[in-house]
Design a protein that fits this description.
It comes from Chryseobacterium phosphatilyticum. This is Molybdopterin-binding protein. InterPro entries: OxRdtase_Mopterin-bd_dom, OxRdtase_Mopterin-bd_sf. This protein is 20% helix and 34% strand. It is an alpha+beta fold and 161 residues long. The chain has a single domain, classed as Sulfite Oxidase, Chain A, domain 2. Strand 7 and strand 8 form a beta hairpin.
Length: 161
Amino acid sequence: MKKILPLAFLLISGWLFCQSGFKLKVSGDVSKLLELNLTDLSKMPRKEASLKDKDGIVHKYAGVSLSEILSMAGVPSGKDLHGENLSKYLLAKCSDGYQVLFSLAELDASIADKNVIVADTVDGKLLPESKGPLRLIVEGEKKPARSSYQLEALTVGQIQK
């Protein structure tokens, strides 16, 4: 037992060290490139979203509104989301290679009532290592396919003519 404790401490401290170096990257067709670490995100306004798991159990996630992050990067929204800007999209990329796509219009509060957050907690606890440190939560969709684990990058693009 005494030999296991130091090993467990090393594993946990190694995981925490890796997470402390984590940065969510926001790039592409933005006015300001962002690299937000977990501390940056923890200081931003918090929002909650609910999501049902595959067993039908509803979990409460908390984090930062995706629209808040996009606003910090200077992504067009509200009255600026018209004309050419309506052909812009957001590609969310995860560390395992999984990617999901959104139109900017469906994420904009002036057009749709979609609650999308970048969550760091579930049911009041940090996300488990296998699912975090961040998870994109898209509340209200019939399937949780776009609620993606291990979110690492958000890229704004535009459909070419």
